[in-house]
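Predict structure. Input: Sensor histidine kinase, 378 residues.
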Amino acid sequence: MSIALARLRSLAQPLNLAAFLAWLGVVASFVGENRAIAPGAESLVGLLLAAFLAAFVWPDLTSGDDASRVRPQRVSVALQAVFALGVCWFARTTTAPVLLVVVLSELAMLLSLRALVVAAVAINVVLYGVLAFVWQASKPGLIVLIYSGFECFAAVTAWYARRAETAAAQLRSVNAHLLATRSLLEESARDQERLRLSRELHDVVGHKLTALKLNLALLERDSDVDRKKALGTASQLAGELLGDVRGVVAQLRQHEGMDLRHAIHALVAPLPKPRIAVELGDDARAADVAQAEAVIRVAQEALTNIVRHAGATHATLRLARDGDALVLAIADDGVGSACLRAGNGLTGMRERVEGLGGTLDVSAAAGSGVRIEARIPD
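Output follows.
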């Protein structure tokens, strides 16, 4: 149900709404003028207009994600071009070529610039033939030139929107990667600080324990020593030792493993959809940099797959400690096994986890989402 609602919502995007308005304008113009090339062709024009609309909405209603939608979109736009030219052929209305403006704007989102130019030229050559030989228009070249200008404007706008959208997605991914890496570096620095504190504990405590031991040994073997003074010195050393140990232990408690909270939230925050619930255990701290990096990279790849391929509306990310291992579990409510195919990074995730002696389990069923669980030992 949630997937169906998401697909219906995709039809309400601004560019789609503009296309619907253009289609309605052509329909209203044809109904108002009611001019067909031949008696009885009105029904055929109506069928072509309905077929154009059906081809337009088909990819959004049948494909779950951007990757699986590319091929249906290309077939859809090709059909729309045929139906639009059919409307231009059978309907004697000057607004019919508006449908070709919609077609060219869609092609700009799918084709390279060179292929787009070739397609635009081919479509307008056919349109010129329809105007000149079927309609027998007095100035077919002028009409084609006017609509070519509209098509060019729409196509260029859509092409730049496509580039901006791609660049924005790449920037979001890179930014999330950088934020997560920065968090790991900060935690790595804290880990180094913990090592420094342990060395300091050894040096400071070792030095004062040695002094205390020598002082007590002196009291034991030398009866002439000033016992009150020696005991005072020993008491002072013991007090200093206790203070030093408490201070170092207090600092060590702040560095019990690498905290992954900031890195995980940095990965999730830039993602506009789906809605991701994050559950992090209080003890979900990495033992070292290698374990922390593995957790972050697996989470990043899994979240990227959900955004690009799953067509999900909700997802969950859980990270908790189970004995001497960190367990990362990510699940979504997307299309399930339909998105598990080569190139989705599963091999890379498995190699990274198994390289640290861990395991990666992936389960999926069509229509019920994917669940990935990585167990990474200390």
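Residues 64 and 238 are 70 Å apart (CA to CA).
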